Amino acid sequence: MDESVRVTLEDGDESDVVRIRGTADEVTVGDATFRFDIGGPDAEQGEPDGGIVVDGAADADAEVEPEPKADENDRRYVAPADAVPDRGTLRFEATAGRRRVDGILQRLDDEGIVAWENSCPHKPEVQLDRGLGALIDGDQLVCHEHGARFNCDDGYCTRGPCRGRSLSPIDVTVRDGDVFLTDDRFEAGQRLD
Ligand code: FES
User: Fold this and answer.
1) How many C-alpha atoms does 127 have within 13 Å on its Cβ side?
2) Of 116, 118, 120, 140, which is best to mutate to test ligand 1, by the most ligand atoms within 8 angstroms of its C-beta?
3) Spelled out in words, what is the top-level CATH class assigned to the domain 77-191?
4) How far is the CA of 100 from the centre of ligand 1 (A)?
């Protein structure tokens, strides 16, 4: 490498800016010594070069903060789809101004993820998921209070004190592995569990 490269090194409260030339060298800041090899050990094995391999950062804080996923900044983002359990539900909150509605995300075998209000039609104050996931029995969701059974795919109650009524749906979609609200009644979503 003919050109020099400027590198900023940080170790605790200390930082230093150094210029490096050549393809392999070592630089020191504070108590830490960084050995680097531009192109890396795989360069000779046909791997693309141009990277800087840093080795031996024994005392330095070399942790790299992951970039937040852009979609997580979307106010209608609810949760990663893979956080929704196969058997059970994941709680979230949908908001519109000061109005807040508790919801649950539920996975269907081949049909993605659906969402319902976290409330039993028999007694709306009863939450289907109290924090550990709603009861799922086969292809039905069961209210723990009096045993009402609801079809997982359409929310229809087939048995129990609210037979013939249905869970209240909340519209969601899965995009690039994440669940987003698509329900026009709400402005924002937030995972609760
Ligand atoms: S509160 Fe759900 S069945 Fe009674």
Assistant:
1) 16
2) 120
3) mainly beta
4) 21
**CA 1 – CA 15 distance, rounded (Å):** 25
Give the pTM.
Answer: 0.64
Structure confidence by residue, pLDDT tens digits, 96-155? 999 999 999 999 977 799 999 999 999 999 999 999 999 999 999 999 999 999 999 999
Burial class of residue 128 (count of CB atoms within 10 Å of its CB; 0-12, 13-18, 19+): buried
Report residue 88 as tokens. Answer: 């059970």
Sign of the C-alpha dihedral computed for residues 85, 87, 93 and 96 taken in this order: positive
Distances (CA, A) of 82 to 24, 128, 150, 180: 42, 21, 23, 13
Parse the chain into domains and list their residue ranges. 5-54, 77-191
Query: Mapped to the 3 state alphabet, what secondary structure does 95-119 carry?
Result: EECCEEEEEEEEEECCCEEEEEECC
Strands 112-117 and 99-108: antiparallel
